[in-house]
Every structure is written in structure tokens, then in C-alpha cells.
Design goal:
Layout lengths: L10 H12 L5 H8 L3 H14 L3 E6 L1 H4 L4 E7 L4 H9 L4 E7 L4 E6 L6 H9 L6 E14 L14 H7 L19 H7 L7 H8 L3 H14 L2 E6 L9 E9 L4 H9 L4 E8 L4 E7 L2 H9 L8 E14 L9
Antiparallel strand pairs: 1-6, 2-4, 2-5, 3-4, 3-10, 5-8, 7-9, 7-10, 8-9
Helix pairs in contact: 2-3, 8-9
């Protein structure tokens, strides 16, 4: 897969983004050693990517590993109301990947309810009482084929196997014991990491009141169990891929898994999951332009056996990825 960056983004920037996707908490010195540059160079590039390319490193709770429901919502809205509703949804801590489509009259949103009742409160309470919402379609995510801890950037192949191995976190053997679980006492720790996944151990110690060694052990256990992972968000247009679209795919039941596994290998696919609802698979495709979307729909996707129907919802604007920052921030 090739990247076609803007003038201000070069190969080192892309390798740094890919390295952070492998280990978002790696020190600048470790990143520099693997990438073959100084830690000062890494620090400068990191600050510039944050300022210009929307880079954020954050902790994410893995709902699938935690056994929590996830839903994809499609909200059809009256004209001129979708933006306001999308911004309100973006402020919720249980929403991700919010985009405006269909000429600005449709919102696509992923929800990960954190507590029992959150989903019912949103779908049965708040949204139906919103007069501007004309239709609500909710599809539960059943099985992730691609995405989550496995990020889209690795499809660029900017790092070789040795570099990936050198960056991959090595968890203590003791930290791998135990199921994926988040305890109530983990909340102060995660509150900091969900804002800054690179927060230092002294910062985490002050926020939690635990000793630094206890913080290190607990974070290592959360990461090793898969309950939490460190992810990166960025503006894909800086890699030459400004257009994203959600594709709702209907398959033959017997072909569902094979189609999902095949989609996971496609360069254009950043996320893919089986769903319960009118469609069987939902994916997020990231492409260079509308011609690229057509080429993907008519080419790699169109050639897959077992695909019966595809509905595409290109995003006019992405309102939220993992974090939300309104225009005034």
C-alpha cells in the first residue's frame, strides 16, 4: 500500500505513526533507536504531528475482549440538524467514529456502552425523544474481523519485521495472568490514559494515589489481558487518504465468515465486523478519492464470492474518531 502525503509529511513521519501504532507508550529514545534517528528528532516530529496532523495517543477499552456490547447506529435526521446532533453524540464518552453522510442528513456512529443501561438510555430514551431524528437503525456488532488493537497503518508496510518486533511491548509473565477485566479502582488510571495514552508513570501515580510500581503492574496487566490497548488517531488526509466511507454488506449466510476474513486483508479496510441487522458486515473503507472508492467497490469488493448487496455511505465530515475536540479547542 502506498502513501501519498502532503508536502509537510514525509516517510519518517509515516514510520513514526506506524511505530506509535505498535507501541504508543514507547519512549522517544526507543522510537529513535528503532527508526534510526535521534530522540530529539522523534520528539520534534511527534509535536508537529500532534499540531498539524491531529495525532493523539489514547487508551481504548476493548469492548469485544471485555464482553461488552457494541452497536453501529445510523440516524436519519431532518436537514440542518445532523451536525448539532452529531456534536452532542461526540461529547459522550461511549461514542466513537462519528461521521456525517448522505448529504449531511445521516449520522453514522459506533457506541460502546460502559455501564448497564447506557445503551437503553441512548436508544430508548434520548434519541427517540429528539424531534430532529427521523429514523434510527441500530446494528449490534457480533465479531470483529479487523480493527481495534490492529490498526490500519500497519497496511502501509512502513516498518520491517525487525522494527515491529523491537517495538512490540513485552509484558511481564505475571501480567498475562487473569481475564480481561476493568475494576472500579482502575477508573482514575484510565481517565488519564484516555486523555493521553503517553502519560508518565509519575502523572499516573498522582492521579491514582497508588505507588508508581503498583501503577506499572496494573497497567501492564490491563494491556496484557487485552482489556485496554493504546491506539492512535490522526487525520488520514495527511497520508493522502481523505475520504472514508462506511459500507453495509449483505452476504450469503454461509459466506459471512469467509467474506469478513477476506475484507480484513484489503488495504482499504480500516475496520470490519459482522453485524446483527439488515446487513451482515459493516466496514470502514479509507480511500484517496471518489474514484478510489468506485475502484474498490467494483474491484476487490465486487469480486468477492458470497457478497449479495453493498450500500456505501461516504463521510462528508468526520466528527469524532477516538476523542472529540470541537472547533473552539
Amino acid at each position: 500500500m502506498e502513501f501519498h502525503t502532503q508536502d509537510k509529511l514525509d516517510g519518517l513521519d509515516v514510520r513514526l505513526l506506524c511505530a506509535l501504532e505498535v507501541d504508543g507508550r514507547a519512549s522517544f529514545s526507543r522510537l529513535g533507536a528503532v527508526l534510526g534517528v535521534s530522540d530529539q528528532t522523534v520528539a520534534r516530529r511527534y509535536r508537529r504531528l500532534r499540531a498539524e496532523a491531529g495525532l493523539r495517543v489514547v487508551a481504548v477499552r476493548d469492548a469485544e475482549r471485555l464482553g461488552q456490547d457494541q452497536w453501529m447506529l445510523r440516524l436519519r435526521c431532518v436537514p440542518d440538524s445532523a451536525t448539532v446532533i452529531a456534536e452532542a453524540l461526540a461529547k459522550r464518552p461511549d461514542t466513537y467514529w462519528i461521521g456525517l453522510g448522505s448529504g449531511g442528513t445521516e449520522i453514522v456512529c459506533m457506541t460502546r456502552p460502559r455501564h448497564p443501561g447506557d445503551h437503553d438510555d441512548l436508544l430508548l430514551g434520548k434519541l427517540p425523544r429528539t424531534p430532529s431524528v427521523v429514523e434510527i437503525r441500530a446494528q449490534q456488532l457480533l465479531h470483529r474481523f479487523y480493527g481495534g488493537p490492529t490498526g490500519w497503518l500497519n497496511k502501509f508496510g512502513a516498518l520491517d519485521e525487525g522494527q515491529i518486533a523491537a517495538l512490540s511491548p513485552r509484558h511481564d509473565q505475571a501480567a498475562t495472568v487473569g481475564p480481561a477485566r476493568i475494576e472500579p479502582e482502575d477508573e482514575p488510571l484510565l481517565a488519564v490514559l484516555e486523555g493521553d495514552g503517553r502519560a508518565t508513570y509519575p502523572e499516573l501515580q498522582r492521579a491514582t494515589g497508588r505507588s508508581e510500581s503498583a501503577v506499572k503492574r496494573r497497567l501492564a496487566a490491563l494491556l496484557a489481558s487485552g482489556a485496554v490497548y493504546i491506539d492512535v488517531e490522526y487525520h488520514s488526509e495527511f497520508l493522502g487518504y481523505p475520504l472514508a466511507a462506511v459500507l453495509w454488506i449483505t452476504t450469503a449466510p454461509s459466506a459471512l465468515h469467509a467474506v469478513g476474513e477476506a475484507l480484513a486483508t484489503h488495504d482499504e479496510i480500516a475496520f470490519a465486523s459482522a453485524t446483527a441487522g439488515p446487513s451482515h458486515i459493516v466496514v470502514t473503507a479509507v480511500v484517496r478519492d471518489t474514484a478510489g472508492l468506485y475502484a474498490y467497490l467494483s474491484g476487490p469488493l465486487g469480486r468477492l464470492e458470497g457478497v449479495h448487496h453493498v450500500e456505501a455511505t461516504p463521510f462528508m465530515r468526520r466528527v469524532k474518531q477516538l476523542t472529540y475536540r470541537h472547533a473552539g479547542r
